[in-house]
Sequence to fold (301 residues):
Amino acid sequence: MKTAPNLFFSSLCSMFNKLQQKWNVSSGQLFLILCTFAVTGTTTAYISRVATSWVGFDETTFWAWKLALRLSILIFGYQIIILIVSFFFGQFRFFWNYEKKILRRVGLIPKEPIRLAIFASGKGSNAEKIIQYLENHPVVSVSLVLCNRSGAGVLDIAARYGIKTVLISKPQFDNSNEYIQVLKNEGITHIVLAGFLWKIPENLVKAYNNKIVNIHPALLPAYGGKGMYGEKVHQAVINAGEKKSGITIHLVDEHYDNGKRLFQATVEVLSTDNPDTLAEKIHALEHAHYPKVIAEWLKVK
Ligand code: GRF
Fold:
């Protein structure tokens, strides 16, 4: 049985692990970042307290002026102080990016362009819906299509929309950083898997941590995992006599169909359905939702 201090310690560790993953930093850097936050917090609180006397406010000053001064230091001064403190901890870059995110969110600087790469192996109907949905978007563009099968429909679709394509080969994909370099050279910020049949290797998952999304044609965690793709999924659903199936849109980690689930939608499975009719219904569901869920995930909707 876990004692209270053990429980506290393990939840603290898991919180730190989560932060490390979220920010994609080493444990040393995480420590320096947390120090920056702590020093900034106390410094800002101190300054906000003493600043009222610096500017000559006293007991006779209307309370709202004092409050306004303290709040503006806590809200706006904090942003400047954090940059100064981060410099001393060698974390200026991290915090400058953090500040830029805030400035973008409040519309003070333009949003950074999001460049998507779509990975697909087949027909590419999902890829096409995504391309169409994001066409002329002010911030997001589909900039690259990667495919592992020459002659796949998705390559024609990409050509039709003037999107650059890359045909990938298995040994390089699994055992080198070649395609990570290709993606980085193209300025790709996020990856969308749309009917891509190969497992994403660990180096790529790490390089695009929490920035890869996938769609699976069933209600995960059921009917997922190795070998569960395309018609095999629908056949398994029908064989099991399921009354409903659906789609799952999820982030990609090192394991098949395992990352954080972002969205699910369902369809009824009728006794008259076969893998083809079920696939058709699932496709309609995918086309209706995948582009929108991607936009929500990218926070550009
Ligand atoms: C989709 O059903 C997707 O869920 C699955 O593969 C299919 C791809 O279809 N992973 P398309 O190539 O987008 O038409």
Q: What stands out?
A: Strands lie at 114-120, 140-147, 164-167, 190-193, 212-216, 244-251, 261-268.
